[in-house]
Amino acid sequence: MGRDVIKLNANENPYPPAPGVEAAIRGVQAEALRKYPQIDSTDLRQALADYHGLASGSVFAGNGSDEVLAFAFRAFFNSSLPVLFPEITYSFYPVWCRVFGIPYRRVPLAEGFRIDVAGYAGGNGGVVIANPNAPTGLCLERGQIEGLLRANSGSVVIIDEAYIDFGGLSSAGLTERHENLLVTQTFSKGRSLAGLRIGAAFGSPELIRTLDAVKNSFNSYPIDSVAAAAGVASLSDEAYFKKRARQIAATRERAREALEGMGFYATKSEANFLFVSHPGVDAVALQAYLKENGVLVRHFSQRGIERFLRISVGTEVQMDRLLALIEKYLQ
Length: 331
Hints:
The protein is of the alpha/beta class. It contains 10 helices and 13 strands. α1 runs antiparallel to α7 (225-235), α2 runs parallel beside α7 and α8 packs parallel to α10 (316-330).
């Protein structure tokens, strides 16, 4: 397909990171790279704490949110009772459960792919929910999350906020009132730093100390010096961050309206992707057609969503190309 492929299958940010990120990377002296980075990513943790208005002891940093989540599964899900997560959600949750020998149970979604928090009340070894959920893009409200936390006061609840930057309300501030809450985030999506692998978690000091202990037992290597510097720089440019997030959300809404006008059903995604299906279109065939014409999108074979495609939100030009191709396919 050549070099002009439009990649809308990995939920990457189509825009570059904040201008200060490049300056921060260039500012890392080559001489400094012969030394190991800060063992606890102290500067990045403090920057994250300041950004979210939390104490530094309530912040954990890791090499991408996948690593942070893996540590959290190992640290907190060690009961004989099953861990609960939605039937349709991020595919790595059951993978980590199988790797670590953690019993788990998938909770069915309500109508319209909604998460019914009542299905997670008590009698479990922990709860993990992506908010917004993946691949549906649907978000829980603050009151629903607080109800979930109260109903599971005896187990750890992980809220995975990989896509929170594009429309939802972060639960990071709730960690000061709920000691059983761990919130995970990533710099890969909203902050355009997927190539550097930076993840974070927010929770009570006790939860963070436990995460540190697990990390130092399995992988004592912290975030590298270049990534840490880029992460701090990204957090310091709030105006740029919010501008790009609003831009992506606006493009998402425009594309959703256009697709609905073509007869597609689309969830009310608050992430940087759309989750769509068409009653008269085979999703696999449409995906193949788009690929042949230089646009990559994601199809899921999982039962219940096999007729859906997940489309990452690109630039205005990229989405115009996608929409034109889909319109031509329908004709």
